[in-house]
Design a protein that fits this description.
The complex is a heterodimer. Helix content of chain A is 14%, strand content 36%. Chain A is mainly β. Chain B is globular. Classes of the chains: A mainly beta, B mainly alpha.
Chain lengths: 458, 184
């Protein structure tokens, strides 16, 4: 096998450590796609639903509190203070059936409060013997009143083993995933116990601590900042002028100045959420991207820049047309937008050499450095976009909002006029709605364009 | 004719814990086909895949206890995948579709060959940052080893489009790993 393939196979094998939920979700998506049957989460009984509900948790907590109180009253003393286990962090741990022993340690895990997942990297090393990890892990959260159990979980340890290297050390590096279940992991200190099975139960044999919390830099007092007036629009969203129909990716750049922290004034970062809203045939389409964290970067002059690729599923879901992309803050309020056009595949075929002509009327726009026209066709509004470099049509003298008449050649396809051959564009008026179908005016106004000032026609 | 109620994961695991050999039989009934699919995607050889699945049952028998998996399907799937990769690495099988996937993986594989212990954690962090659909496609292609043809048919996307989307995801991952010190 080629060396490259051996290395690729190593990476392929490394994916075995992906958490279960990622793999299960992917399998569920494939099954749903192939069968068309939505797979609902495993149903729970009424009692289980109650236990998982807020009322259930409160009821259990109340019952436990009463029991503890009764025990305390009957015992007549305060609860015993928390006593840490005898074995200190970094102690040796016997973990395998072969009797090998090794040391566990963790990398401190600082994760923002509210993060629904954390990882702890455990490393084990032993001299002279092959090791294989087995056993379980018991996670506790340390509080003023002692340690409270959080979770007990097992590892897929049968898959983790190592042979001594040239220095006679066998090393295992294992990532333990903590999953946010039943209320989540609040910020705090956690103690992870490595356990072994003594034949009847799992007993703790070593432990190490790590923290989950707001990163240290975020706990500093934020600087007092002057927020700009709203009309300064500190956020800008840019996209390419147009994208060819059939392509599936659209790079989007969101730029936010540091002043944008008015979205989250007590944090050093802002969360920007992108959502694309389609016009015309795709008006009911709304594609949201997951919220992302954008941090100001010194290398970009204090700007927080987010760059992503919006995947457009052509041709079934996205149609040629004018789209408006909104950048939203995490509350869902929009902070800026930009327009872009999805073109027909063969718009570059526009030419002036065909004898057959058809006249269509539309509104001229100039956006993001590229001209395009929304024109009416069969009562619908369709955009036609042009390449400034290759088009032979003279756009000079036209400004955004002008009503124009397009002289088109024979249509290649009847569905969209942009498949036709363009001969000429003639300016009719400076934005007179009387020259346009009512449907087009309505669509334009829905998109925020005002076509209200009728001026003298040419 | 009535069929017996299939056992739940907990019931099958309980059989393992009780050292009841019928646990293997129930495992085969419940997850034999799934394990076979996992193995076939990698080995593309029915006899090899069958051996691999049988080894999976043995490995499960030897692992439970002390292990007590909560999602038996994935517990078995991971063992099968691990064994199948070992078998493939030994050169006993050839799989053109997997070779293609490996070529794709080589694009984001870090150049360094020494300790790649951080890679799984980084991959998880990267995948969590992706939209669900993109993440699922990546996992289905590179964890399960499903072919582009099957995925494109399932999701109603042209093969070229699906390949392009996977390419963009790999490109994002390449940038992600590079930013974290990997020489990709």
């Amino acid at each position: 096998m080629k060396q490259e393939n051996q290395r690729a196979l190593n990476a392929f094998a490394a994916l075995n450590a992906l958490p279960d939920d990622l793999i299960l979700n992917a399998e569920r998506a494939l099954t749903e796609a192939e069968t068309g049957i939505a797979i609902a989460p495993k149903p729970q009984g009424r009692f289980a639903r109650f236990l998982n509900s807020g009322w259930g948790v409160a009821a259990i907590a109340g019952i436990v509190s009463i029991i503890v109180l009764v025990i305390m009253i009957r015992a007549g003393k305060e609860p015993a203070p928390y006593e840490p286990p005898v074995k200190p962090a970094g102690s040796t741990i016997e973990m395998s059936s072969e009797g090998a022993s090794f040391t566990i340690s963790t990398e401190t895990a600082n994760y923002p409060e509210g993060t629904n997942r954390f990882t702890v990297v455990l490393t084990g090393k032993v001299k002279g013997e092959a090791i294989s990890v087995c056993g379980g892990w018991h996670l506790e959260r340390l509080t003023d009143n002692g340690a409270e159990a959080v979770e007990f979980f097992y590892t897929d340890d049968a898959l983790v083993s190592a042979q001594p290297d040239k220095d006679a050390y066998a090393t295992v590096k294992k990532t333990i995933y903590g999953t946010n279940t039943g209320g989540g992991f609040p910020a705090g200190t956690y103690r992870l116990h490595a356990t072994k099975h003594d034949g009847e139960k799992y007993v703790s044999v070593a432990w190490c601590e790590f923290t989950v919390g707001i990163p240290a830099e975020e706990t500093e007092t934020p600087p007092i900042m002057e927020f700009p007036p709203a009309h300064d629009r500190p956020y800008t969203v840019t996209t390419p002028n147009s994208i060819e129909y059939g392509a599936t990716g659209l790079p989007i750049t969101v730029t936010a100045t540091e002043q944008g922290v008015d979205l989250m004034p007590h944090r050093k970062y802002s969360i920007v959420k992108l959502a694309g809203v389609a016009n015309g045939a795709g008006a009911d389409q709304l594609q949201s991207l997951e919220a992302v964290v954008v941090r100001p970067d010194e290398q970009t002059g204090g700007y927080a820049v987010y760059h992503d690729s919006l995947t457009l599923l052509n041709p079934n879901e996205w149609y040629p047309g004018l789209y408006r992309l909104y950048a939203l803050n995490y509350d869902g309020a929009y902070i800026d937008y930009c327009d872009f056009v999805i073109c027909e595949e063969d718009y570059e075929h526009l030419t002036t050499n065909d004898p057959d002509k058809t006249v269509e009327r539309g509104v001229f726009f100039w956006a993001n450095g590229s001209p395009f026209i929304n024109l009416s066709w069969g009562g619908e509004v369709y955009p036609v976009s042009f390449s400034v470099e290759t088009d032979t049509v003279d756009f000079s003298g036209l400004t955004t909002g002008d009503v124009v008449e397009m002289v088109m050649g024979e249509f290649v396809e009847e569905t969209f006029p942009a498949h036709g051959y363009l001969y000429d564009i003639r300016k009719l008026s400076d934005g007179s709605p009387s020259d346009l179908p009512a449907a087009m005016v309505g669509a334009m106004e829905d998109m925020g364009y005002k076509i209200t000032e009728a001026k003298e026609s040419e | 004719m009535t069929h017996p109620r299939p056992l739940t994961d907990a019931e099958i695991v309980a059989l393992y814990l009780a050292r009841d050999e019928s646990a293997v039989e129930h495992t085969a009934q419940a997850y034999g086909h799934y394990c076979m699919t996992v193995a076939m995607n990698i080995l593309n050889s029915h006899p090899d895949a069958e051996e691999c699945v049988n080894d999976t049952y043995l490995r499960a028998w030897n692992s439970i206890p002390p292990q007590r998996p909560t999602v038996l399907r994935l517990f078995l799937g991971k063992i099968t995948r691990h064994l199948a990769i070992d078998r493939y690495r030994a050169g006993r099988s050839r799989n053109r579709e997997l070779e293609v996937a490996l070529d794709e993986i080589a694009e984001f594989l870090p150049a360094r060959e020494e300790d790649d212990g951080d890679l799984p954690m980084l991959l998880e962090g990267f995948l969590i940052s992706l939209p669900a659909e993109e993440r699922n496609l990546f996992v289905l292609r590179y964890w399960h080893g499903h072919s582009v043809a099957r995925l494109s048919k399932a999701f109603g996307v042209k093969p070229n489009n699906l390949s392009a989307r996977l390419y963009r995801t790999r490109e994002k991952l390449r940038v992600y790993l590079t930013e974290r010190g990997y020489d990709v």
